[in-house]
Amino acid sequence: MKHVKQLLSALLLLLSLSLAFVACKKDPVDPDPQPAVTAITSIDPATAPVGSTIAITGTNFSTDPASNTITIGGVTATVVSASPTKLVVVVPAGAANGPVSVTANGQTAQSAGTFTVALPGLKPTKEVRGTTFANLTWKKDTIYVLRGQVYIPADYKLTIEPGTIIKGTGPEMDPNGTNYPGALIVERRAQLIAIGTPTQPIVFTSSKAAGQRSYGDWGGVVLIGKAPVNQSRTAAYPNGVRGTVEAYGEPLDNSGTMQYVRIEYAGATQPTTPASRLGGLTLIGVGTNTVIDHVQVSYSGSDAFAWFGGTARLKNVFSYRAFDDDWSADWGYVGNVQFGVSLRDVSVGDPSGSNGFEVDNYQSAETSDVTAVTAINGYTQTAPTFANFSSFAYSTAPTTGLYNAGIYLRRNTAVSIYNSLVYGFPVGVYLEGAAVGPQANFTSGTLDLKGIVVANALTPVVGAGSNTPEQATTYFTGAGRSNQIIATSDVATLLLNPGNLTLSSPAFVPQTGSPLLTGAVTGGKLANSFFTSVTYRGAFGTDNWVSGWTNVNPQATDYDR
């Protein structure tokens, strides 16, 4: 019996081992790995001449150059070097514009975009898209093409060489399919170093060919800083820019340097709302250590220059033929700007009414978070200082129709404007009050208008809301303000330059003996060390600071060479 029990135990042990083996055999096995797929993700540059090299990035390329077959526009190219993700090839003679094809490891892939064979003398192009977490340098021997919103993120820097051309594309070219037009957006703690020269300005322009460019072909240039704004910390950035205001109070923040820069044909509609458009240059919470001077914005489909809060300081700015406002300030902007000129085409404007200056503050419906803003950001009221501006509506008679005012102030703004000229608008100065507004501010002195000449206006001064026309006029013409109203019949006495209103070749320096060359007010806010002390009113004395680096005919300019 004992042997029987031992036998049964052995059989049971053998059975359990067999079951364990079977169970192991029934465990699921890993599926066969998927075969690698040959694909093309980018071509750099997308435009290059015959004989130059281009880089094709993608997947599943052969590391043996001879085992990859590349055709460009149907013509076989020579492979210089090869890795599994990158092929460097020579653009072959006879290549035509068309897709690039790669055959490797038994598979063939074709590029989604078209490669363009550059004609002799044309610069190569490089597409830029999305967010790049690296310091970048853009060089003048390459044309950079912005597709969709291009972000320079926090703690990184984009440096642009003098003479570099950057082109923005329309919403149809957004690589993400979200219909955002090309735009360059420099985020908080990032920097843009774009230092051109009078002979080699940096140019942001339309990607369309000469003769085909128009208002709003692309988005624009945006700088974002950490200087205060008067919005709730949860407020979204304007006009489709990603992110929210959050809570920052660093008025000395530095977003970089922009000097001798032109921005043309920006202001495309954003997909957020039909009326959402970036300005040519949009500054959001930009601080005083940012250097911005000698910037021209031309043919903007929205505002030319737009300040959303911040403390930024600018000099020598030129708005040419803008669609909406030339100088738009809001969100508690408290910076300083000196020497600005705008020239408008009165046949083009916003049906809602284009202005020279439009300076807003928070609306009553937007003040629920004022306590928090005061505690966090330090500023609650738009109170910038502008000096030596000339705003011209191109017309020998006062402009009507698509235009509103040379200076339009509303929603509790406390702006100060000194030693400036407004010419040819239906209204010279428009003071619109609410429960609190310009009336209270000019009574208290926080809003200050001095040394201003209003010329060739249908109505020199308008009061609205809680400001009656009589109150507005009494304020503007008050003793000690040195403001003047020049009737249309008397504009010749200003001795403006004969070419002042010529769109094709404007000339802004006044004639010798012009009364504008004297009479500037001084002191007060102009004692700030930022301001250059001058004797003249308007943007120009005897120095023609727009000469050389600006362009009033970008439609005919060939930017490809």
TrEMBL record:
Leader sequence segment: 1-25
SUPFAM superfamilies: E set domains (SSF81296)
PROSITE patterns named in the record: PROKAR_LIPOPROTEIN
Keyword Signal: yes
Stretches assigned to the IPT/TIG domain: 37-118
Keywords: Signal
Gene3D superfamilies the record matches: Immunoglobulins
TM spans (from-to): none
Identification of the protein by name: IPT/TIG domain-containing protein
Organism ancestry: Bacteria, Pseudomonadati, Bacteroidota, Cytophagia, Cytophagales
